[in-house]
Amino acid sequence: MRHALSEPIADQCLHCHDKVAVGELYCCHACEVLYKVMHESDFKEQLQHSYEKRNVYEHLDQISFEKLYRLTPNARNFIIYVGGLECSSCVHLLEKVSEFYPEISESRVHFSNSTLLVKLSTSAKLSHVLALIEELGYKPKILKSGESVRNQHKIENRKLLMRIGVAGAAAGNMMLYVVPIYSGLKGEMAQNFNWICFALFLPILFYSAVPFYRGAWNSLKHKVISVDLPITIALWLGFTVSTFNLITKQAEVYFDSTASFMFFILLARYLLRKVQQHYLFQPDFDDLIATEKIERVVGEQSEFIPTYEIQVGDLLIIRNQAVIPADGILQSEQAHLDLSLLTGESLPQRTFKNMNIFAGTKVFSDSVLIEVKATGSETHLGQLLAKLNSSLQIKTDFGLITDRLSQYLILIVLMTAVLFFAFYVPISFQQALNRTLALIVLACPCALAFGTPLAQGLALRKGKKMGLIIKNPSVLEKILKVENLFFDKTGTLTEGRLYFYQSFPSELSHNEKEIILGLENISFHPVAQNLRKQWGDVKPVAIHQAKENISEGVEGFYKGDFYQLKASSVSSDRGLMQVEFLKNDKRLAYLYFSDQLRPDSVEIVKELKKRFKQISVLSGDRSAEVLSVAEAVHLSKNNTYIGYSAEQKEALIRKTPLSCMIGDGSNDSLALQAADVGIAVSGSTDLSLSHADVYLTESGLKPILKLIALAEQAQRTIKINIGISLVYNSIGAVLALSGFISPMVAAILMPISSLLLILSTVLGLK
Fold it and tell me: What CATH number matches the domain at 499-594, 1.10.240.10, 3.40.50.2300, 3.40.1110.10, 3.60.160.10?
């Protein structure tokens, strides 16, 4: 539920139902397009006709150009940097571009880096894709293979520095000519010096200030008010008045002060941009792999190649302590791998030939040989990052409040400026102009809208260091509103490190163990991890068409026979977990596993009882062990749900308001997704990041208390930031209107509010 400020009655956006100004139909351009797609039958045809006429990108259809931008040589996958991404509707629109151009087989937005991954069919034209994105109202730039988003940031920063340099040079040279005028120079020489200042001001007006014009125009197109609008008005007001006075030979000319004002505004914006890029940048695949070259086997020899040239089917040599840059199958007899990035497991895992290994794992043994099965964004890690980052665009209640508050404050500042200027002009035009400019610069809440995403970004970064992978900053608000907490048993209240207790029949053949390990090769479930540890000397066989089914188990073919490992619907009388091993639907054996209560479960549940109205155990097990665990952590039978299937868990969660589900991320995935907050403990990372809001990389329940403490810290910091911004802007407005602050001093003081919020946020989230 979004919090709304006191405001005049407003209409709702026809698409997202967010509030808009009275009389407006949409909150942004993306919502307008999405609505027309759904309700105007000929809109797609009109859009197609428009983008097909654009020919600025036609050169990209030449194969020699296209190959420069392919992520991999044999697939038509491209990364496009998209300027103008603003909200979740933008993301939704760009991920639906295939509806306008069916030759796009897939499109996925990486919101935090402003990039779009597109996969094209063989008949698609790359030029049409970029023209379509431009027609939708964005600024596309296709990135070359291996080109980082950071490189794009460097290019944009360099352009901004050039604009700052021009403004600084022009303002500095103006000072040489205005000092004599301020010292008393009059007559024709003073007039000539003013004309020189006029000429020096033109590069600022038509080059340095261009980003402000774009920002102001875009805000007007989207029916919102941005801080660029009052700055643009102030700039042109100062230039127009100065030019008029220069032509009419009046004394009041403000080229120098306006130029200095623009220089400091640009400099402040650059510094703020650098801070945002530092704190809010989300890592991509290359950032985590951090490997520029890799050794590839070619015949009887080997060669070093850039990692972006790795292809499916390549044989790679991975040295000791090196990070594996691609998914593949181990071809060496065995290897010790660090899987901490994927599973949170700190100890190296022993892996055998024909087992799957994943990008991001680190080799802790002699050199190993792997056959590549997936690269880059197609890897297990790449897909997890895409899922993680694609969720970061959703605005929180505090984000919406600060956005709207910024809009209202800018509007108030503009109205105050107009009224004050009209009132004070008869007294002194120069003072009216100076004080109005100072008000517009100093009182506009540039930092307010920045403070909330900064606090949320830092909180997410801090969470990662604490073992909390938080998909969405809204979790930091939702977790504090939760009233009903549900625990899965296995892997949450208990260790989750299932111990293979025994089998029935009592002895499994060596070949049966090989088949079982082959089936579990694709799984990170605690059962699979335990069997790999306990049967360390057994090498898994290669299983064909292996598949893991949620809440059921794993299955696949070996030598033409169909094998399954699945949870038994019949519980063990001794409270043991029971797994069936089947061949062609005929049971070969039962496998029994035991689990133990975590040492900190009793203490943590006791602490959580102080924060939540109700805590329950929600388990799929039908064993006596569920009741035993619930009793051990002092939960009543009324709060214990036994034998619930994945669908039943989901149904219970959906009908329970303000709920949080804590599970292992596999058989609890539907419940994790249905809950207001889903928390997956260390284990099945693949499904955890797909369905949960938070993933705990550290074992135990203490990270849950850390999450709550972090959420409280983040919300407290955001509230403090809002207070600082309002107080600073109010004091600045009074001082500006009173004449104590000039426009140039206001431009110098303008970034101080941002610096105060940065300092407040960094200290608040220390």
Answer: 3.40.1110.10
Q: What is the dihedral of CA 306, 308, 309, 311, to 10 degrees?
A: 130
Q: What is the C-alpha separation between 395 and 479, in angstroms, rounded?
A: 15
- Give yes or no for a contact between 18 and 92, defined as CB atoms under 8 angstroms apart: no
Q: How many other C-beta atoms can be found within 10 angstroms of the C-beta atom of residue 682?
A: 24
Q: Which of 659, 656, 678, 676 is nearest to 668 (CA)?
A: 678
Does the pTM surpass 0.85? The reply is: no
**Separation between Cα atoms, residue 562 and residue 715, nearest integer Å:** 53
Which CATH code is given to the segment(s) 11-147?
Answer: 3.30.70.100
List where CATH 3.40.1110.10 sits in the chain: 499-594
In whole angstroms, give the CA distance from residue 8 to residue 11.
10
Report the pLDDT averaged over residues 74-85. Answer: 79
Tens digit of pLDDT for each residue in 521-575?
Answer: 877 666 787 788 888 888 899 999 988 775 578 899 999 999 999 877 555 555 5
> Chain-wide mean pLDDT for the chain?
78
Tokens at residue 70, please?
């392919």
Asked if residue 225 has pLDDT above 70, the reply is no
Q: If pLDDT is split at 50, 70 and 90, which confidence band does 659 have?
A: very high
Strands (E), 559-718: 561-567, 577-583, 586-594, 614-618, 640-641, 659-663, 677-680, 694-696
Q: What is the DSSP letter of 72?
A: B
**DSSP letter for each residue of 354-365:** T-EE-TT-EE-S
Distances from the Cα of 706 to the Cα of 437, 465, 501, 713, 738, angstroms: 46, 11, 34, 10, 48
Q: What confidence tens digit (pLDDT) does each residue in 444-473 have?
A: 665 666 667 778 778 887 888 888 888 777
b/e per residue, 234-263, with b = 16+ CB within 10 A?
bbebbbebbeebbeeeeeebbbbbbbbbbb
Question: Closest Cα partner for 398 from 479, 477, 481, 482?
Answer: 477
Q: Which two tokens stand for residue 540?
A: 């898994």
